[in-house]
Design a protein that fits this description.
single chain; alpha/beta; 2 domains; five-stranded mixed beta sheet; 28% helix; globular
């Protein structure tokens, strides 16, 4: 009698939280090499509701709860040798949250994305970073504190973010702001953002992990992060 395998060979996490241009999970898997059987976990199967463009605190909380539930269920099937894929259409905040949730315990993650022209990209965050960093400007205030509150993390592929926008957000949410950490890429001449590619994704992921670890050490009393992702949708 065959024993049931605890871990799957391949797991696909679908962030299917946008109303428009959703990807078919089977079509995503068709682009992948190898014949490994895949298990699919979709955010909408865990209470996520598809929404349009724009930001809503209620929708964001709902999406966050769905992502947490999806990751919790999928983690039971993800082992050291499991190939973990991420795809789908959702807001930047949802992609950022999913990345933060899984990057701390699984290294082999590949983001499968279809560009507007129909080209498929495979961006692995477990590859070897190349010589050029993705972020050209990293602003990390060197003021350690054990005070309680949240740390704002601004991740931008090109646009600059006014500090007053961050401060006003925390004021509306009645949350104490400990500090703001900014990771910004400088776009090439004539462009508004620096593209995320299969070549620079490992460097991007490494920078994020490094700065997040610094936050943990510099602000031991922080109650969490508020991540602001600025880039093309």
């Amino acid at each position: 009698m065959n024993r049931h395998k605890r871990h799957a060979e391949r797991v696909l996490l679908m962030l299917d939280l946008a109303e428009e241009n959703q990807l078919d999970p089977e079509q995503v898997l068709e682009q992948c090499t190898g014949s490994a059987a895949a298990e699919i976990f979709s955010a909408t199967d865990f209470g996520g509701i598809r929404t349009g463009r724009g930001w809503s605190a209620e929708h964001r909380r709902g999406h966050s709860a769905a992502i947490e539930a999806m990751v919790t269920a999928a983690r039971l099937r993800i082992g050291f040798r499991t190939e973990l894929l991420v795809s789908g259409m959702a807001g930047l905040a949802s992609h950022a949250e999913l990345g933060l949730r899984i990057s701390s315990w699984h290294d082999d993650v590949t983001v499968v994305n279809r560009r507007k022209g129909g080209q498929w990209d495979f961006c692995s965050i477990s590859g070897t970073p190349d010589g050029e960093p993705y972020f050209d400007q990293i602003q990390f205030p060197r003021r350690p504190t054990s005070a309680h509150g949240r740390v704002a993390v601004v991740v931008s592929s090109g646009y600059e973010v006014d500090a007053e926008l961050i401060e006003s957000f925390f004021e509306r949410e009645h949350e104490p702001l400990l500090s703001t950490v900014t990771l910004r890429a400088v776009p090439p001449s004539g462009a508004t953002n620096k593209a995320v590619t299969a070549h620079n994704t490992p460097a991007l992921a490494r920078s994020l992990c490094t700065e997040l670890e610094k936050i943990r050490l510099m602000y031991p009393g922080q109650r969490g992060l508020a991540v602001f992702v600025v880039g093309p949708i």
